[in-house]
Write a structure and sequence with these properties.
The chain has 261 residues and is α+β, with helices and mostly antiparallel strands. The chain has 2 domains: 78 residues, Immunoglobulin-like; 171 residues, C8orf32 fold, CATH 3.10.620. It contains 7 helices and 11 strands. Strands 1-6-3 form a 3-stranded antiparallel β-sheet, with no helix packed on it. The protein is globular and about 65 Å long. 29% of the residues are buried. The mean pLDDT is 93.
Length: 261
């Protein structure tokens, strides 16, 4: 499927030494950026990549004094559905160095203490990484809740959720909880930020079209040997439940969002 996206900036007034960092779609096994074009009254534009994660970012600069800065960025992306069979994961496959850093803790993603105790309890007696992932995903579905008063996608602050004793929030919060539990269980995991840019075949709540300015979404990805980065999105499964989906549809989507996207 081909998707055309455009970003438009039109500021009024006089600005001095204005700069903009704009994320653009990343090339992955499931998507490929076919075109990236720009127009405007900027003086400098260059594509950079995040030195740690490799995410592409467009740097745009209006040096000196600039009246009414304007910018249009258009990109075309080719996407295909991801569909991984967790039964094909290989526990004996070597872990690539690129995935190892996603076992480490960060300020918002602890892997020791209460998170590790909880992860070990959920996965007790399990040896297969795929079985551990499924158990952790199901646990998040059973214990997390969406909170509608959380701004945007949330902060993904797992220590704050643990301190409050409530696993609540939006997509960044809920999927960060899964990522922290996976890392604590020895599974490399990360969150991936993007936008909904097409309708969903399951329900309107899981897709977007037209103006997607506010259609930000974050899902989780977990590395499994023999498969690579596997998508997991308990947050969207819970969003569908809040939309009043039937039991049959809910079960279908719960299964789909572990391994498919």
């Amino acid at each position: 499927m081909h998707t055309d996206l455009s970003f438009q900036l039109a500021l009024q007034g006089r600005f001095r030494d204005l700069a903009l960092w704009l994320p653009v779609p990343q090339d992955t096994p499931q998507q490929r950026r076919l075109a990236l074009e720009s127009a405007g009254n900027h003086a400098e534009l260059a594509l950079h990549h995040d030195p740690v994660h490799g995410a592409p970012i467009l740097f745009v600069h209006w040096p000196g004094v600039q009246d009414d800065p304007q910018l249009t960025v258009a990109t075309r992306v080719e996407t295909q559905e991801a569909d991984y069979d967790l039964a094909q994961a290989r526990a004996d496959a070597p872990l690539p160095e690129e995935a190892r850093r996603y076992l480490e803790a960060s300020a918002h993603l602890p892997v020791a203490g209460e998170v590790r105790i909880r992860a070990e309890s959920i996965t007790q007696g399990m040896d297969s990484p795929a079985d551990k992932l499924r158990a952790l995903y199901d646990w998040v579905l059973a214990h997390a809740q969406r909170r509608f008063d959380v701004a945007w996608c949330g902060l993904g602050d797992v220590p704050a959720m643990l301190a409050a004793g409530e696993f609540c929030g939006k997509c960044v919060d809920i999927n960060s909880l899964l990522v922290a539990l996976c890392r604590a269980a020895g599974l490399p995991a990360r969150t991936v930020l993007g936008i909904r840019a097409a309708p969903s075949r399951f329900a309107p709540a899981l897709g977007a079209a037209g103006d997607v300015t506010q259609a930000l979404h974050t899902r989780a990805e977990v590395y499994l040997g023999g498969l690579g980065w596997v998508p997991a999105d308990p947050a969207d499964a819970l969003k569908l439940a809040d939309a009043g989906a039937s039991g049959t549809l809910q079960r279908e989507v719960n299964a789909y969002l572990l391994g498919s996207a």
